[in-house]
Amino acid sequence: MYIKLKERRILTTIQIPTNCPACNSLLHTVKDILYCRNDRCPAKSSKKIEHFAKALKIKGLGKATIERLDLQDFHEIYSLSQEEIVEILGSEKLGEKLFAEIENSKSANLTTLLPAFSIPLIGRSASQKLTRRISTVSEITYAICEDSGLGPKAASNLMTWLDEVFYPMEYDQLPFSFSCEITPVVDDLPSKGVVCITGKLKSYKTKAMAQEVLQNYGYETKDNLTKAVTILLNESGVESAKTKKAQEMGITIYNNIKQILKEENTNGITEMDR
Length: 274
Description:
The chain is of the alpha/beta class. The protein has helices at about 40-55, 65-70, 75-80, 80-90, 90-105, 110-115, 125-130, 140-145, 150-165, 205-215, 240-250, 255-260; strands spanning about 25-30, 35, 195-200, 220, 230-235, 250-255.
């Protein structure tokens, strides 16, 4: 015998948080999404260290190991001794291997380091453009960023990070030279295309993430639809003003970022990028 129960719906009021639950900093709303902008927030630190380790190819320093070592800052990675790592991990073999990986990462040059610090819009492509004109991090200026082909937002993000994070948090004291050899600029290397994004994305949580991936694959990105734009990405399916203008200008329109990267190794886009 079966008794059919009448479905009851209970409506509850959800209080929108105003402060970050991890660091208590004031949250900011951007397009209906709450963000914590505190660069020292412990909840953000683990993810940044994970990205940093991946960019510098430090094998063995994944999410679980970062948690076991209780790493909260880049400085802490390089302050650990081999003995401490062995003791915490409980394995001499794993500890020795990880310590060797960390030591090897110290040879990373500026081209590799800049994208490792999770600076919005500063991916591999932006870093390569920049380091064709400078030899050390101290030479970076807004004018240099512009001359290197970085957009206004990317240049502003980088300069803000240098002024508010890099020097105040003494990242310049990390065991890197923060330098690179300048490749003589004869002609700027041509990009694979200039992409403008319109509408809400489906493939990535934020526009900045999608732009960084595109830059890492050799594409330039623009916020506005200019004559330089060769590709418009519209994943929303909504025919916006930018879409209509792109059609009039004869610009190629794609509805998925993977269509743009179809000739690339799209398997290289990992969950870390998302």
